[in-house]
Design goal:
heterodimer, A: mainly alpha, elongated, B: mainly alpha, Sodium/glucose cotransporter, 22 helices, 0% strand, globular, transmembrane helix (chain A)
């Protein structure tokens, strides 16, 4: 395959589509987690002030969960990219001769 | 407690000199390897994902994060923690949207990506201006903060502190280029993570290694309000806008973006984001413990007595728990942090001046290797001296808003153009130029009219623009202007090139 054929191949088009679909789903989850946290603070201060355990509050727990959640999303993306995305990239590259 | 913070302290100075010598030795070895442009700007693309992750974390964890957030938590409690969380969320977004295409398309600066299929001249100038504005705002804030900090910590005159920072930073960048700057960042990131970890462990040891007991003490001393959100998040729209600036601002910070060219390929670029997110996430998780610990053990009174903004909370806690030697170590780490961040910023500014403007615009890309490196070094000196002068000029000013401005401009001027050039086929030269201008100018004007500057700095009673951070307006404006201007000036040539560049964007074929 030459470059033009490759770019027009269904496989390549699917790769590009999948990449952005995956990226935007992950971004949407990130938005949901972060703005969920921020808007809860803005709109429901009582809930945030509630205690879990003796002194730790819901707010402190939520803050920790957002940081851990954001980190997990990054890790999930890389696992996906390194196994699924890169595999197809390598296949396409080897077809390009 | 009796404190030696604010007085010249032999142990602190010895530690400080040790750190500077250590990093200069590395610069010396890096310098012998730095001869070509690729080595000067991109460390010869020889940095591994793990190393780059540490360096990215080093670039991002400035003294403002370390001292500022721990101080904010010590004085304001939970609000400081909300702030810390916000600083992390840009990293996943950076990964999902631009890390790989950026690495595959660019050479030295993010303007390479924007200009890839469009007309070089206008794009380079506009992108360089956007980049320089961001770097300049960020640098002034760092320089003023560092001067104040060193004055407080060592009792050294402000001006002398600025000159020392400028001089040592120039040594790193001039002789070692990106390779030395990367290693300085790595060492600093390790020292910072180590220092804050030790500080956290020493703090928790006082509370039986149970954060709950620490929160209990906070509540007993200062009341429940310290553990609950206060005035930081008031209206949803305001917090939405600030969140956008923090999240997408990261995706437009030139000194962060240029780190992606130091790794060999997209795979290493991805790894470096995971490592960076891990280190930064860990840092922001433990820094509130340091802040709460300082509030309980040192006490708010002493913290505000030493420095109004609370910036000395962490060093004071270090002295209380680990004595003068540990204070010296933390002081040296804080100093190294400033040096390293300013060095990274200077390198980003120098690459915009020399690579984007001089080589690409004036010389149309036709400059010899040695000429390019020479121009890069001259640009470095010019920017370094400017930074020191501006630092001295802004002495005593409240410059906290400059960091907000830097993020707002980065999110509005740089990010939309960069992102659209990667994903949108119909993006044109006019679209990019107008988008950068609209985003940059509207962000600047709106922040001047916002409560942050109009009320707090200029002391007017009412803000003209209601939001503390304008990103929601200025970033949307940049996208709208980009789309309208592009649709009005269709460019078949650029669309054709967009199709061709896909093989590079997605497969990395032909990437340097």
């Amino acid at each position: 395959m030459n470059i033009e054929q490759l770019l027009n191949s269904e496989k390549f088009k699917r790769l590009v589509r999948t990449k952005w679909t995956f990226s935007f789903i992950m971004l949407a989850i990130l938005f949901f987690i972060y703005y969920g946290y921020v808007f809860t603070i803005a709109l429901n201060k009582q809930l945030v002030a509630q205690k879990v355990g003796q002194y730790t509050t819901v707010g402190i727990l939520m803050g920790v969960l957002v940081v851990v959640g954001a980190w997990l999303l990054t890790v999930i993306y890389v696992i996906w990219a390194n196994t699924k995305y890169d595999k197809i990239v390598d296949e396409l590259k080897s077809e390009l001769k | 407690m009796n404190t030696s913070v604010g007085k010249p302290n032999i142990i602190a100075i010895v530690f400080f000199i040790l750190v500077v010598i250590l990093t200069l030795v590395i610069t010396y070895f890096a310098a012998r390897k730095t001869k070509t442009t690729s080595e000067f700007y991109a460390a010869g693309r020889s940095v591994s994902g793990f190393q780059n992750g540490l360096a990215l974390a080093g670039d991002y964890m400035s003294a403002a994060s370390f001292l500022g957030i721990s101080g904010l938590v010590a004085l304001k409690g939970y609000d400081g923690m909300i702030y810390a969380v916000g600083w992390l969320v840009g990293w996943p977004a950076l990964m999902f949207l631009i890390a790989e295409p950026l690495r595959n398309l660019g050479k030295y600066t993010f303007a390479d990506v924007v200009a890839f299929r469009l007309r070089q001249g206008p794009i380079r100038i506009a992108a360089a201006i956007g980049g320089l504005l961001v770097v300049l705002c960020y640098t002034i804030a760092q320089m003023v903060g560092s001067g104040k900090l060193i004055q407080l910590m060592f009792g050294m005159p402000y001006e002398l502190a600025e000159i020392i920072v400028g001089f040592v930073m120039l040594l790193y960048v001039l002789f070692g280029g990106m390779l030395a700057t990367t290693w300085v960042q790595i060492i600093k990131a390790v020292l910072l993570l180590l220092g804050v970890t030790v500080l956290t462990i020493l703090t928790l040891a006082k509370f039986g290694f149970n954060p709950g007991v620490l929160y209990g003490e906070v509540q007993k001393m200062y009341g429940e309000a310290m553990l609950n959100p206060g005035g930081l998040i008031t209206t949803p729209l305001d917090s939405f806008s600030l969140g956008l600036a923090l999240m997408f601002g990261l995706l437009g910070l030139p000194h962060i973006l240029m780190r992606f060219y130091t790794v060999p390929d997209a795979k290493e670029a991805r790894k470096s984001v995971v490592y960076a997110t891990t280190f930064i996430g860990y840092f922001y998780l433990i820094i509130p413990i340091v802040g709460f610990g300082a509030a309980v053990l040192v006490g708010k009174d002493l913290i505000t007595q030493i420095g109004k903004g609370g910036n000395m909370a962490a060093p004071l806690l270090a002295e209380l728990l680990g004595g003068k030697a540990f204070l010296g170590f933390i002081a040296a780490v804080a100093f190294a942090t400033i040096l390293a961040v300013v060095a990274g910023l200077t390198l980003a500014a120098a690459s915009a001046l020399s690579h984007d403007i001089y080589v690409s615009v004036f010389k149309k890309g036709k400059a010899t290797e040695s000429e390019q490196v020479k121009v890069a070094r001259i640009s470095t000196v010019i920017f370094g001296v400017t930074a020191v002068l501006l630092g001295i000029l802004f002495k005593g000013q409240n410059v906290a808003f400059l960091v907000g401005l830097a993020f707002a401009i980065a999110a509005s001027a740089n990010f939309p153009a960069l992102f659209l050039s990667i994903v949108w086929k119909k993006f044109t030269t006019a679209g990019a130029v107008w988008s950068i201008l609209a985003g940059g100018i509207s962000a600047t004007i709106l922040i001047i009219l916002s409560p942050t500057v109009w009320v707090k700095v200029l002391h007017n009673p009412q803000p003209i623009f209601p939001l503390k951070n304008p990103a929601v307006v200025s970033m949307s404006l940049a996208f709208i202007v980009a789309i309208i201007a592009s649709l009005m000036t269709p460019d078949k040539e650029a669309e054709k090139k967009f199709e061709e560049e896909k093989v590079r964007t997605y497969l990395g074929v032909g990437a340097e």
